[in-house]
Each structure stands twice: as structure tokens, then as C-alpha cells.
Design a protein that fits this description.
- The structure is a homodimer.
- Chain A is an alpha/beta fold and about 700 residues long.
- The first copy, chain A, has four domains: about 280 residues, Succinyl-CoA synthetase domains (Rossmann fold, 3-Layer(aba) Sandwich); about 160 residues, Succinyl-CoA synthetase domains (Rossmann fold, 3-Layer(aba) Sandwich), CATH 3.40.50; about 80 residues, ATP-grasp fold, A domain (Dna Ligase, domain 1, 2-Layer Sandwich); about 110 residues, ATP-grasp fold, B domain (D-amino Acid Aminotransferase, Chain A, domain 1).
- In chain A, helix 2 links the parallel strand 1 and strand 2.
- In chain A, helix 6 runs parallel beside helix 7, helix 12 packs antiparallel against helix 13 and helix 17 packs antiparallel against helix 18.
- The longest helix of chain A has 22 residues.
- Chain A starts with a helix and ends in a 6-residue tail after the last strand.
- Chains A and B meet through helix 5, helix 8, helix 11 and helix 23 of A and helix 5, helix 8, helix 11 and helix 23 of B.
Chain lengths: ~700, ~700
């Protein structure tokens, strides 16, 4: 990874296109740099001015007496390439190209953008943008952007592909007093992209949670490698926009981004331990939770309420969010029974009743936070005549310090009468909501992250294969190519599959009835015979298939009948011969497939196979890149096929490890050979010992070769 | 329906337990009555006082010079029964029993509550509660409750099973300035319940939307009848709490409510046209939308934005919420192209660009609102240097009046700089959100309601059956009863099914090989023979089943073999004979079933049948009560079975009308005979012409008889 430390802690910043005129972008950037408290050198570059906002001006970056770390470019697009060239010559390390008018405006802009990239490579500069609002860091501190002011200082890094979104969030952050460590506008991402900024934020000691607004991922395979490591360190929450078909169109007209398919993004985020926010509110609810509270040890939550209805709503939400109600020990329950009024509920949710003053909340909260089964807590308060919202808030702040390892959330259900209390809570880092549901959604996100992080740490990569296996596949593909085909025949897919240890039902290409009988005798009856011809797709329609052949005589007759029928119905079709395949006993029918995602590479599918694949849609997905054994196991358990494999209604369980291995081999094959465009193993039959693919389809495409 | 007009527009109100002491509930009620502006007579009842808050006191309700319309009871529980008795004698029409200490505290309280109900019946009084906060109406106006103050006047009726929830919402309503027409605390619902209050609100000209917080439904079958009619008039939105297993426990410890199963509630709400809110925020987002905006004509929405990112997020949300992006006419698109800058996007979402002043929003909004395809519109605004949030808001208010029939929503994405504009919008009834997603969720709810309401108006009830059919079923059940059984035998289920016109594969009970052959010859080969004995459940295990019998000889042999095997393996089991059934050709296997819900009565299931029913869980549900032909048709389309029935992969479509008819007949049978506890038709085989049940199971239970 390239080191972006200097980009975010520069010793010197030049502003090319700096201006004295208020309202000009080049002026806003200067004003922000001055007001941000940046302690390094600032060099406004302007041909005519002597100084701007007290900083000495230079007519060109080349006149600046040192090689600056960061040059912010805010000149018209036509001048940008020349300016970048001068920066390169002057030894600038990073460019932040505010200027718009590149890829997003069409062909000419794209060429200009490519020119910028070429110059950056030549001079070993890295670039943010073009077409950005800029970047800022509240701890360095500096603000090299044209934002109207800066956000409060805090621990959230916000990385945005949309400049407007960054401006909107900045404006909003001030009214809710939400602090940020960094804000980064990525613009067209011609050079540096989300992967670089996420990695940099993961290394930044002032950042504790990383938020992204993304419309696409620039380099999916690098994302899979790097972000996985980053999320071992810090929670990463992404709102991926452009998920809808219509949304994807809007994305591509907006920044020229090519939105990948939704399922691949979902899978990529999960495999990398990234939390995917459903909407804007969730994005920030999660951020606030992570910034202020420890990560819960598990999903058991205690709820304390002063009224029944809100307690029920919270309990419903616990189930909906896949959390669990903590089961208190007998000691806790009897402590509660001893110290709460007799009508109070001492089970979870604990109901301290409508007349509860702060002290009664204290009794309940101390008891449940001390209980081992409590891994997080939510306190609900609705206003009654005797409620003490401020005192109760103070108590929560105290408890938060005492039980620092257990996340504590609050829902103050009401309005005016609770504002003082809820403000106090928020100020002291206890996330507080009007209604309880968002609190539980946020806690659930934290638990999910904690599980994903654990899985990342424990993950075991799938086995690589030997060079010999690859040689055999290459040789087969060469045969296919020489034959000017892109779809493999049955015996070819068998060669490829077997080379990678993917079990397939034996299949042989034969050219005479005698040879067919010989193969059948060797593999054992019953067998199937199928015509092998690149021109015959629907073999059954031309009498090209004969099943359930039980003897040498039947095989011989079948061979002759197939040949006769095919010659009569498809005269002139090139015939490679006839394929002899062993008929396999019945078992659970599965599908294992691979399709190639534009962003993230091979996407592996698993589920119930056979003729109803499209009807049942019982399929789960994982990306091959970085795939772990645990990923595969989880992928299997997500399907209904898993219920069958475990042994449904008393049937013998199937050999799941051999299915895991087969999936791993399919993934490895797809990674080793980017020219494989698609692969379908359907059905794969699972038995109590082993699994066998009956039909394997492989299509190659040389467009996909890099 | 009983008329509650006098309850909500009383001419006189007595407060029994009125008090002069501040802090006492009996004082709060008096203070609220005085402050509410109630213009009728108020009679405080108190033994010792002469007057309270300026109202003349009476020592007893019997001393009051007129028969009062509403008596609010706030005396200790022990006195409540006597007080109710006196109210009855004094000719009171409605009781509002604030007092707690009834069903919710156990056995003794339950008895006391039943006593209250008995007195009410005797004197023809109706009762709210017991255990309530009270009721209020801001238009009458009056406030007969101990709420701290009243909500702003408005058009929302809020009906709450939780008093704390009502207090919390009231407190909150004042800080967000949300108006209510009525607030009703239902408490233990010993007499009047949600059905009565929903109906009353549907008749109230001051109410335009009805909100409920419910923990259970008291009388499910009446709910299905009445609420369906109410929601033809006004939108009804319900938050049903206690959906989780844990939540259901909390509900039953809270108000002694017995929470019904979630699926039955979901189905009931849908069949009644009720919108089910997922959480508290949704409940009020929907209410605000309905109160302020017309119901959209359909799901086509236009989005106008001044920045790309938020536009993409909104577009994603359109898809997620099952809305559709309006497709503008060529005229609209060219108007937009003529009047917007060249970089603007003139397709939906319309991007007026970051430098858009209010006037540019006007151009765009006028064009898209005038377009026929636009059925609702959402305007997004993020802050930039030149944005005019207030002017844009003023323009939206103007457009809202001009295009009054098209709902208009806004999302002002930002904070401080947008507050003035967004406040202006809210004040003028344009629902405005920080982020766009909740706007689209609310619009989607409106579209859903509009569809449901249309369906309710067009609904066609299922056909009733003749008395003769019922006689045949009764006779069969009588035979079963005489035999001291609760599970019907094959030939008995056939009698019942055929009486109701449910097609079953012919089955006959025979007692000799000759009779078996005779039946087989009459129905045609192949046939199946099965042993008929109430003691033999697993017939195959004792050699009690022979399938695929093709001739008289095979039938004769099978008969003798079954008898021999059963006599050998199950000596002494009572044998009724052997059942002869026709073997049916293959077709799509379905299941049609019935289970009885505690709250809502017969719940009908439909889906893919056969041995994988439990694995595939491809089942949809409807309640039999009030079931319409349209409900059944929709129920079928919700399943994957529907894909098969329409003709999957080129197979001939099945006879869907005959399946609709069969489901209707099963529903009618379940309604006519509450003693049928469960019914399973699995499989039902669907053919291109007709459908036939192969196996019908009916279990009766006399606990279910009312």
C-alpha cells in the first residue's frame, strides 16, 4: 500500500488557483486552510497577487522555495494538465484536483483525465480526484477544500464519492454536533480510490470508525484483499448507492461509474467484514454507536423500562434484529425482587414501573449490568408525573463509566420534557433515540461486526493446487481453441474438472460400438450414451441420447440407433463420436456454479440443483477471491439444500466436507483461469460418502483475459 | 355497531373521585376538563368538597340533577364496583374507568373487572377501560384524562392499548407540533375495544387518519368484519407490538393480553386494508403523509434533485419500496431540455445541478408535475453556496396548491442552513425529511393503502353453500362421534369434501375382494388398496397398502395379501375394511390446509405440496372470515407454486379457477364447522382441467365449539 501519511499530515500545501475574491473556490480553499489551524506552510499560487489572506503568493508552483507535499488544484480544466505537469517537475508529492470537467463530461474530459494520470505516474505523484470538494483532517488539522466551514472534531472518517453528499453531511453534522476525524471527497477516483482511503483511515490513530458513501468500487479484487485487513482493525460501514436498476443508470450518468451487481457487492462487503448500511440514517446511527460505545461481547441484551408498551416494542425489535434477551441469573432476579416494588417485572425486560424515580433505575441497572449474561443494555424512559429524566441520565453516565465494557444505549420516548436529559446523555456518549428500534438496530450492527471480525481472524484460506493441474487445464483449453470453440465438450470438461480434483461421473468419448461396450464394461452398468457434436445443442430432440443401458447388447444397439438418427435428422453436422457416461444412483441434487462479476471477479453459487433451480432460487453466493473454508461452510448453511444434506426426514446425511472441497476447487479453478467465463455443475449428486458432478458446463472467453 | 357519538361529544361529564389536591389523578382530570374548553356540564363527585376548580361538587352521582353522558371513575379499585353500580342506577351512558387494579393484577382483579362488565350490561352502559389514562377529543373539545396537557389540534386519531405510550406520544407531539383529533387509552378493553374506537373514528368528520398501538386484538372475527369497512373510508395504520416470542411473553405479563400469532395478524391486517407499521417512526411518518397529502393515483414518482448522490439514493429507495420512476413524455423532456442548463439531467431523477436557484427548481417541478405519468413527487435539496432553501420551500408550497391532487414530499439534506426552509415546508403540510428514504417509505405506504382500498371496494365474497351440504357433513361427524374418534377415515373425509364440492380422488370402503373388484372396475384401473383401521397409522409398515393395481386379479390378490399381512402383524386391531382409491395421473402437487387461529378463526394455507412442504415453506395464508375471490387469487400468485401452475418451462398451464374454487370451499367448510380443528389436503394434484385432492385429513375438536 502506498503511504498516505503525508497527504493527511502535510508539512506544506500549495493552492494553485488561489484567489482574493470571496465566492471563488480558490478563495474558499485559502480561507479554510487559514481557519483550520494548519501549522505547516501555505503557498497560494497566483500570477497577479502578492499575498492572499496574509500568505505570500507565488506566480507558479515552480517558484515555491521547497518541494511541497500537497498541491490543491483549482484552475479551469483546460489548464489543469499543464499545472499538473509543473507540479510534477516541482517535486510535489500529492495532488488534490478540485477542478471539474473530466470523465464526467464525456470523451474529451476522459482524455484530459488520462493525461493527468499519466503525469502522476511519470512524476510518482498520487492524486485525489479530479472533480472533488477536497479533503480535511480535524486532528492534523487542515482543511484543503471549499466546504463552508468544518465539522466538529471527532473520530469518524467519512469518505464520499459524492461531493454534494459530503457537503450535506457536513452541514448536518454541525446541527447534531457529530464529530469527524477526516472528510474525503473522492470525485472521479482516477488515481486514489476508496481502497487507499479506507486503508489510510485504518492506520490513523485519530479515526475509530470509517464511513463510506460509494457508488461503485474501482478495483474489486484489490478491495477484497485490502479492506478485509482494514476491517480487522476498525469497523467500516458503507452505504452503497446505485443498487437499483434505475439507480445504477443514475450512477452511470452521474460520475461515469459502472455499478456492479448488487449481489456481488453484498457478498464482497460480507467477506471483507464491512457493514452495509441500508439507508442514510442507519449509516450514522451505526457510526455514533461505534464511536461512543465498546463493541458488545455477544448478542444478549438487557432492557430496563418504566412502562410496558415500550418494553414490548423493544423486545420485538430484539428478535427482529437477531439479538437475544439476556437471561439473568437467580441472584440478579432475587436482587431485583428484593429492591423493586412487588408489581415490578424482574425478568427481562425489567419494568421498574411508571412511578420510578432515578434511584429505582439505579437499583435495576446496577443489578443487570453486573449480571454476566448482560452483554449490552438499553434503558427506556417515558415521561410520567414523577419521572426524573435528568437525574436518570446522570445515573446512566455514571454506570457507563463503571461498566465501561458493556455498551449502554437509551431511548427517551417523549419530547419537550425529556430534552435536557437526552441532551446530557448524547453529550456523554450514550446514544439516545426517541423510539427504541434504531438503538437495537445499531447494537445489532455492532454484534454483526464483532462476529465478522472474529471470523476474519480465524479464517483459513482454501488450498492452492499444483502446477501440474494447471498444465492439464491449459492443454485442454488449447485443444478447444484449435477446434475454434468456446464451449467445452463433456470429455473436455471432465479432463479440466479431474485435473482440479472435482469429482465427475466418468465420461469417455468413443468412436465405435466396440469401444463403447469396452468403456461401459470397465465402468459398470447402467450407462448413458450421448452424441458429441459442437453443433448439436438439444441432443434429445435428434435422438442423440439413450439412458439406462444395462448390457453390452443394449450399448451396441444404442450406439447404432443414435448414429442413424443423428445422421438422418442432422445430416452434415460434425460428429466427434459418442460419449459413454456411468449412470449414478439417486441422491440430493445440488448446483455449484460460477459467473464472473465485472468488479469482483469469480462469483461462486451453491444451492439446490436439478430442473427447479430457477423456480426455487435456493442459491447462496460467495466471491472466489480470498474465499475461506469458513465462507464456504457458511454459504452451504444459508441454503435449504443444507437441510437436505444434514439428512431430511430421517435420510442419511450427505458428505458435506466433500462438497466444501468441490466448491473450493471450483473457486480455485476460476481464479487460476480468468478465461473461464462461466461454469455450471448441475446436478452435483451428494451421497453419504462423496459427491459427483453429473453434468459440467464450461464456457471460455478471451475477452476476460487481462 | 354501538354508537359512540355521545362518548366523544358528551353534553355532560361527571368525575367520580374528583379532587382539589394537585398531583392527584382526580385533580388532573378536573384541570384537563377545565382547560380543554369543554362547553358541556362538568360534575365533580366528592363527598367532602363543595366545589373543585369552580365546578359545583356533588356527594354522589345519584345527586347530580341530570343523567350524565360520561362518568370518569378515578376511585380506588375496591370502590369501583359500587361506583359503577350507582352510575348505572343514575342513568349514566358511558364509563371511563381510569382506576387500575383489575385483570392486570391477577385473579381478584379479574373478578372485579367481570363485575364491572356485568353491571355495564345490566344498565346498558358502555365502558372504556378499566386501567386507562382516559380519552380526549380536540375538536369537541374535551379532555377526560390525566395527561399532562393536550396535543395540538389535528386530524389524527390515536388509539393506544398502552397508557405510557399515549403519554409518550403526547409529549413528543408537542415538540414536533403534530396535531391529533382524538387520543384514546383502551387499557384492559373489558368492554369497548379497538374495533369500536376504530369504527367511531372512521365516522368522525374531524379525523382523517387512524393510528393504533395494539398488543392484541380482542375479538378477531369482529375485527375482520368491521375494520374492513372502516378502512374503505380512512387509512388505518397499526403498530402491533408483541410480535416476537419474547415480546408475546412481555405482553401477557403486562396487560394479561394473549398475543395471537404474527402471521394471522399480518393476514388479518392485509385482508382489512390496514397498513402495518414496522416501527414507531414508520407509524408517524405514515400518519403525517396521510394527514397532509392526497393519496397518490399510482406508484409512479418524479424525483428532482440538485445533486447526483442523493438522487441515486432516492432512486434506490424507489425500487426498494416497490415504487416506480415516472417515465416523462417527450414534451416534458424537451421542455426540461429547453429550460435547464445543458449539463442537467432531464430524465427521472431530474438533476437541476448544484448551482440551481429556486427558479430552476420551479421550471423542473412545473414540468414534471404537469406530466401525466407523475403521480407523486419528491424534491431533494442539498446545501451549496447558491442554494435558496427558503425560496425553494415557498415555491413548493405554491406548487402543492396548484397540483393539489399529486402528493409532494421534500428531503432537505443538511442541518442549520436548511432549518428555516424545512420548517416552512412542514408548516405548510409538505412532509420533509433530512434523508430521502423515509419519504419514499411513506409514499409507498400510501400507494399500498390505495391499492388495498380499491381491492376492498371491488371484492367479491365467496359463495355460500346449501343447507343440504351441511346436513351431509353433520351426518358424517355424527358417525365419527359414535365411533368415539376425532380423526376422520378416508371415506369419511371424502363424504365431507364431496358434500362441499371439494374434488377428491374416488375412494370407497369395501369389505370383500369381490366388492373391491366391483369398485375398481367402476372407477377404472389403476387403483390403490389401503387398510382402513383407526388403530393403524403407518399403513405401509404392516403391508397395508398396495399401489398400481391394473386388473381384477391383481385387486383380488392385493385384498387377500393386505388382510393376511395386517392380521399377522397387527392381530386384534379393529378393521373397518379396505379402501379402494383410483390412482391419479401426475400433475403439479399442491397443499391446501386449514388451521384455526385463536384470535381470527380459520387460517387457510396454500402452496407447493408433496413431501417437501416443510422444507420449501412455499406457503401463503389467508383468513377464512370475509375471504374474497380476489384474496384467494392473490394468495395463489404469492407462491412459487403459481409459477408451476401457469405452466413452467413449456408445460401446459393448470386449471387455476378450479383451485380457487377448492380453496373457497375449504374456507366455507371451516367457517360452517368450528369443530373442525385442522384440515390438510396434501397433495392436491392440479391438471389442465380440474384439480383433485389425493389425501384429505380432517381432525375435529369439541373444545373449539362455541
Amino acid at each position: 500500500m502506498s503511504d498516505l501519511k503525508l497527504l493527511f499530515s502535510p508539512r506544506s500545501i500549495a493552492v494553485i488557483g488561489a484567489s482574493k475574491k470571496e465566492g471563488k473556490i480558490g478563495h474558499s480553499i485559502m480561507a479554510n486552510l487559514r481557519e483550520s489551524g494548519f501549522t505547516g506552510q501555505v503557498y497560494p499560487i497566483n500570477l497577479k497577487e502578492k499575498e492572499i489572506l496574509g500568505f505570500k503568493c507565488y506566480p507558479s508552483i515552480k517558484e515555491v522555495p521547497e518541494a511541497v507535499d500537497v498541491a490543491v488544484i483549482a484552475v479551469p480544466a483546460e489548464l489543469s494538465v499543464n499545472v499538473a505537469q509543473e507540479c510534477g517537475e516541482a517535486g510535489v508529492k500529492f495532488l488534490v484536483v478540485i477542478t471539474a470537467g473530466f470523465k464526467e463530461v464525456g470523451e474529451e474530459g476522459l482524455k484530459r483525465e488520462q493525461e493527468l494520470v499519466r503525469i502522476c505516474k511519470k512524476y510518482n505523484m498520487r492524486m485525489v480526484g479530479p472533480n472533488v470538494v477536497g479533503i480535511l483532517d480535524t486532528h492534523t488539522p487542515f482543511n484543503a477544500s471549499f466546504t463552508p466551514g468544518a465539522p466538529p472534531q471527532g473520530k469518524i472518517a467519512f469518505i464520499s464519492q459524492s461531493g454534494a453528499m459530503l457537503l450535506a453531511i457536513l452541514d448536518w453534522s454541525r446541527s447534531v454536533n457529530l464529530g469527524f476525524s477526516r472528510m474525503i471527497s473522492m470525485g472521479n477516483k482516477a488515481d486514489l480510490n476508496e481502497v487507499d482511503f479506507i486503508w489510510a483511515a485504518s492506520e490513523d490513530p485519530q479515526t475509530s470508525v470509517i464511513l463510506c458513501y460509494l457508488e461503485d468500487v474501482t478495483d474489486g479484487e484489490r478491495f477484497l484483499e485490502v479492506v478485509r485487513e482494514a476491517s480487522k482493525r476498525k469497523p467500516i460501514i458503507i452505504l452503497k448507492a446505485g443498487t437499483s436498476q434505475a439507480g445504477a443508470r443514475a450512477a452511470s450518468s452521474h460520475t461515469g461509474a459502472l455499478a456492479g451487481s448488487n449481489i456481488a457487492y453484498d457478498t464482497a462487503f460480507r467477506q471483507c467484514g464491512v457493514l452495509r448500511a441500508e439507508n442514510m440514517a442507519d449509516l450514522f446511527d451505526l457510526a455514533i454507536a461505534f464511536v461512543n460505545q465498546p463493541i458488545p461481547k455477544g448478542k444478549n441484551i438487557a432492557i430496563i423500562t418504566n412502562s410496558g408498551g415500550p418494553g414490548i416494542i423493544a423486545t420485538d425489535s430484539v428478535e427482529r434484529e437477531n439479538l437475544e434477551m439476556a437471561k439473568f441469573s437467580k441472584e440478579t432476579t432475587s436482587t431485583l425482587r428484593d429492591h423493586l416494588p412487588p408489581e415490578a417485572s424482574v425478568y427481562n425486560p425489567v419494568d421498574v414501573l411508571g412511578d420510578a424515580p432515578a434511584d429505582r433505575y439505579r437499583t435495576a441497572l446496577e443489578a443487570v449490568l453486573a449480571d454476566e449474561s448482560t452483554q449490552s443494555a438499553l434503558v427506556l424512559l417515558s415521561p410520567t408525573a414523577v419521572t426524573e429524566p435528568v437525574k436518570t441520565a446522570e445515573l446512566l453516565v455514571e454506570m457507563r463509566q463503571k461498566y465501561a465494557e458493556k455498551p449502554l444505549f437509551a431511548s427517551y420516548m417523549g419530547g419537550e420534557t425529556l430534552v435536557e436529559g437526552s441532551t446530557l446523555l448524547t453529550q456523554h456518549g450514550i446514544p439516545t433515540y426517541t423510539f427504541p428500534e434504531p438503538a437495537l438496530k445499531a447494537i445489532s450492527g455492532m454484534v454483526k461486526y464483532s462476529k465478522m471480525r472474529k471470523a476474519l481472524h480465524e479464517a483459513k484460506a482454501i488450498e492452492s493446487l499444483t502446477e501440474a493441474s494447471r498444465q492439464e487445464v491449459k492443454a485442454t483449453f488449447y485443444d478447444v481453441l484449435r477446434d475454434k470453440r468456446l464451449v467445452l465438450l463433456g470429455n473436455e470438461t471432465t479432463r479440466v474438472a479431474e485435473a482440479y480434483g472435482i469429482p465427475v461421473a466418468p465420461i469417455y468419448l468413443v468412436n465405435s460400438p466396440e469401444e463403447a461396450v469396452e468403456r461401459a464394461e470397465a465402468m459398470g452398468y447402467p450407462v448413458v450414451l450421448k452424441i458429441a457434436s459442437p453443433k448439436i445443442i438439444h441432443k434429445t430432440d435428434v435422438g442423440g441420447v439413450k439412458v439406462g443401458l444395462e448390457s453390452a447388447q443394449e450399448v451396441r444397439n444404442a450406439y447404432l440407433e443414435i448414429m442413424e438418427s443423428v445422421n438422418r435428422l442432422m445430416p452434415g453436422a460434425p460428429i466427434y463420436g459418442i460419449e459413454v457416461q456411468k449412470m449414478m444412483p439417486k441422491g440430493n441434487e445440488l448446483i455449484i456454479g460460477m459467473t464472473r462479476d465485472l468488479q469482483f471477479g469469480p462469483l461462486i453459487a451453491f444451492g439446490m440443483g436439478g430442473i427447479y433451480v430457477n423456480l426455487l432460487k435456493d442459491v447462496s453466493f460467495r466471491l472466489a477471491k480470498g474465499l475461506t473454508v469458513q465462507d464456504i461452510e457458511q454459504m452451504i448453511t444459508e441454503t435449504k439444500a443444507y437441510t437436505l444434506l444434514r439428512g431430511y426426514r430421517g435420510s442419511t446425511p450427505s458428505d458435506i466436507p466433500s462438497i466444501v472441497k468441490t466448491i473450493a476447487r471450483v473457486a480455485q479453478l476460476s481464479l487460476d483461469f480468468p478465461e473461464i467465463a462461466e461454469m455450471d455443475l448441475n446436478p452435483v449428486i451428494a451421497y453419504p460418502d462423496g459427491a459427483v458432478a453429473l453434468d459440467v458446463k464450461i464456457t471460455i472467453s478471451y475477452d476476460k483475459l487481462k
